[in-house]
Amino acid sequence: MEQKENKILLHACCAICSAHPIEMLKHSGYEVIVYFYNPNIFPREEYERRLEAQKTLCAHEDVELIVGDYEPDVYFDYVRGYEDCPEKGARCELCFKLRLQETARKARALGIDTFTTSIVISPHKNFATLTKIGEEIAAAEGLTYLAVDFKKKDGFLKTNKISRELGLYRQNYCGCKFSVRLD
Asked: Is 128 exposed, middle or buried (0-12, 13-18, 19+ CB in 10 A)?
C-alpha cells in the first residue's frame, strides 16, 4: 500500500479525549485517521456509548473512523494476574501496550508509518509512560510514534470545550471493569 507522508493513525480511547488531538493534528498538516480499538471498555453498553460519541466527533471533524473489533476476552487474557493492581499501575500499562500494539499493526496494514494516541490528553495518564510504550512498539514495528502531550497549552480544557459544544457522551471512569465507579 502506498504511503502518504501526511497520514497519521490516531488511536482514540474516547471522543472526549480525541477531540482536541484531532483538531491539533489536522492543523499541523496531518490527514488524521482515527482508530477506535478499546477491548478494555466494560460493559458492552458503555463501549457502544463511547463508540457512538466517537462516530459523532469524527463526522463533525470530517475524518475517517476505523473501528477495531470489540474483544473483551483479549483484554482480560492480556491483563490476567494484574486484576488487583491499583489504577495507574502495571495493569494500566499492559492495557496501553495492548491497544498501541494493535494500533501499530493497523497503521502498518494501512501503509501509514506514524501513529499516536489520544490517551495522553488525560491528566490521569502519564505522558512519559505512554511515550515509552509507544516508541518501543513503533521501533519493533518499523514505524514512528508521534509523542505529543496533547494536554499542554490547555489541551485538556480545549478538548472538554469541544465535547461540550457537540454534546458528546462523557464517561466517569477510564473504561475497564476494574475502574468502574458506582457513584
From this structure: exposed
